[in-house]
Write a structure and sequence with these properties.
Blueprint: E1 3-6, E2 11-16, E3 23-24, E4 29-35, E5 38-43, E6 48-53, E7 60-61, E8 66-70
Antiparallel strand pairs: 1-8, 2-4, 2-7, 3-6, 4-5, 6-8
Length: 71
Amino acid sequence: MPTEITAPMSGRIAAVLCKPGDQVKLEDELLMLEALKMENPIFAPADGKVVEIKVAEGAMVEANQVLMVID
């Protein structure tokens, strides 16, 4: 079952640390979100494969926006 990774807060995507097709493990860093002048890592909530990345580096995102999908 696909899992959507969402932004915990509004901010800017500082780095995308994986690409579609990558295998990820629980707690792997997937993205770096810059918010409130701090870098906030976004971690994988489960093992899986990156199916889709919906944002690019430098993109502004809103809280709860879907950033990527893993399956």
